[in-house]
What does this fold into?
Amino acid sequence: MLRPLETTLESNHYPLSPNLLGALKPSHPAHPVGELLEQYQAQGYLWLQGFLPRSEVEAFRRHFFRAFEDTGLLTPHSDPAEGRWSGQAEDRTLASKRLMEVVRSAAYESFCLHPRLWQFLEGFLGGPAYLHKRKIIRYTKPGDKSATGAHYDLVYLRGGTDRFCTVWIPIGDCPIEMGGLVYLEGSHAKGQALEAQFAQQNQLLPPEERLNAFNKNMGENGWISKNLPALAAKFGSRWLAADYQAGDIMLHSPYMIHAATTNQDALGRLRLSTDIRYQNVRDEIDARWSNHWTLEDML
Ligand SMILES: O=C(O)CCC(=O)C(=O)O
It folds into this structure.
């Protein structure tokens, strides 16, 4: 059961009423990998609570926001670990520059390659783990009405295996009201059916276009919809949410439909998260993901 929320969740201006919401099921990282795999296959996701040391995740949050101290993004003289938004327009050019510097930094790379993570994924993926170089790190301001629309990740990675696994890591506590990821319950089967449909529609396109998440047969940004309540109604499903804590990680399947909601944090904190993709190095790798993420990537 979801705890009563302090506010109505919304995404891209569409409110999500409580009857369209449910709670994600937590999983324990110490459980046998076979059991976790079964859960992942059945649910399309795994919410692994307390997977990373909380102090290390908090330290990285501090490190990230410290890089933005000269941009006007944060409340002056606040602790960067809090990530408290200034409430004012930042220097966008400088903030983008700082973001791209973090993306290319050893600190971020080593955070994404935390030994606990890649070692777990080796067992989970059944072979040597490969981390895609395109790694995305996002911050979301309180009140920003544009949020990630409903999609499944394979549309962006059609040039390789469909056995990759996305790891979404909240960098800092992320209570539901802060707008973390929500998952459409049971939707990995629907994602698979949708992808089969797209593959058919894309058949007549030139090979490069066929793989493209932004080709003429796809929706805005490769998304299925921005209207989360309508999508839940259409599929007779609901959106599963959670109070994520620093140290938790989410694993989700390439077909699992997910989205984000507006950050409505009462304390005015920025939501910070990274989403990265791991796969077995022996499976086919989508060559388009072998460069650093940039803001022009539309992801
Ligand atoms: O953090 C977000 O807003 C989107 C993340 C996402 O789509 C993913 O992890 O695949």
Summary: Residues 21-281 form a domain with the Jelly Rolls fold (CATH 2.60.120.620). The pocket of 2-oxoglutaric acid is lined by residues 138, 148, 153, 166, 168, 181, 258, 260, 273, 275 (CB under 6 Å). DSSP finds eight helices and 13 strands in the chain.
